[in-house]
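User: two proteins, same treatment. go.

Assistant:
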Amino acid sequence: SIRLKEDFQPRMISTFIGEISGEVAIAGIERAKKFFVPKPAETMLPHDLIYFFAFPNAINSLRSSVCEFNEQTVPIKSCVIFWADSLGVEIAKVLLKKGIEVQIMDKNIELCRKANIELKNKATVLKTNYDADHIVNKTRFDTDMFIAATKNDEYNITKCIEAKQKGIKKIIGINNDIAYSSLMRNLNIEVVRGEKINAYYSILERIETNGQFMQKKFCGGEGAVLLRKVDAHSSLLGTKPALPDKVDERGHFIIIRDNDIYEFRLIAQFERDDVIVAFTKESDFEVVAKWLQQGA
């Protein structure tokens, strides 16, 4: 997901996609605290939180052209992680491998000791009783990235806000409870699923997933992506089922073919290895899923 710049020039989704090569689709938009799945004629507005579906080579151009903060101009060289438990340590390991200077902070002296051993003294591990405001101001005001990785979402939100007030641009909060997901996004905190919510989503996603179908949740569970592959034995091969209005109005439908993205309406018939992709709201999931699974 990407938050559009304040000076983003409003334009239709179809126009925007044409400007950036076309290897992109928009799965959803969160605007004024409300999530919806747009059609290509929808206008993109400044401050919209856009959920993009894109090939990897299109991601960098998206970031540089529409982000509120252009990450490409400020390389990440240092990071502060709040919480020295297993998740904080695993995050630190990944960052250290990328050559990023890491500082882990926690109030628990035993967790700090274990983290220091696990990381083999490659990161700075600090035991502190101070809050994030004091630490960021006195110890690492110039850090490039801040990650609040505790299991308490309210604590994570508070520390991320404190870090944002100090001018740190890259701020990430671990989201453990679905009830806080929307709030974190509205505060412009980059959200990463915690263990609890990740397990919750994994269960939901696996219920409707099999050899032909796959689904993924996004936007705190408010949105869903459904995919169906047309293989050599598919009943859809060489055909194209009608898309009834009652289904069409509940989602946005595209086709992935030969590393290109096409609008569903522009494809005459399905070919082998096509992937049908449907973006929909969770509340409309059953209607869209039933249509997508026809003839299976």
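Protein 2:
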Amino acid sequence: PPPASPTTVTNPITPTSPTTTTPPPTTTTSSATVGASSYYVSPSGLDTNTGTESSPLKTIQKAADLARAGTTVYVLAGNYPEHVVTKAGGTSDSARIKFKAVGKAIMQGFNIIHPYITVEGFDITGFASTYDAHIRVSGDVQKNRVDPTKPGTLISKGDNCQILNNIIHDGVQLVAGIDIVKRYGHAPNNCLIKGNRLSSLRYRFLGTAGLNHRVEENVFEWLNSRDYMLVFGGNHVFKRNIFWKGNKIESTGNHPDWIQFFNNNGEESYGHLFEENYIEGLEEGVQLGQINSGGG
């Protein structure tokens, strides 16, 4: 039998030079220590605070600037109008950088460009940078200026990310939900996307590149004549996800698909496992899938 209907997601709602040879005192922009085991963030905090539970930071980005392997960032309930970029990564599963919502923490998403990052429990909406994503997993890569057809110089990338139990909803046109992206020849590998709800977006809900991602127990709903999944890379597992409420919107210029992959400038899509997924109500005009070798 089909699973119980998920709860409908609703839209939730910045002297003159000294005359002596004595150097001026150093200005401290934050009294928080770099690489602490934990930081707390609250809308009532200050980015000049220590980042402890009793003296929280104000922005998630400030905590991301300070976090190092082994740090957990606790984001308290409230509204954070920011799209956060990682500045460092973890080193193993036991030494991750974790961003965890405590209560309903509403924000615009993450750009994950470092390894072993966990993003858990956020209410994500309101991001409006077109051809980008609420959660984008890619890399810090310098383009090959001598031969742009060859891979660039890799600085870091979002391998082994975990995107867990978030709600991503009510998107604007041409902003994806979760997008794992190849950049100048380098793509993240081994990410886990689990327990998320992606609802009423206006661009692809999920995109993949790289190898060995696991997509498990997520809910994809209110398709809006977009595509639920655009799948590239190899050996991904899609297990026990729900795809439903594939509503149709006229004149979007897109033929909606449950899954699509094609010849994307030489990209391949291979070796995937689809197991125990539930698909219902994709509506007339929605293709179950498109698999071809043409186009770019």
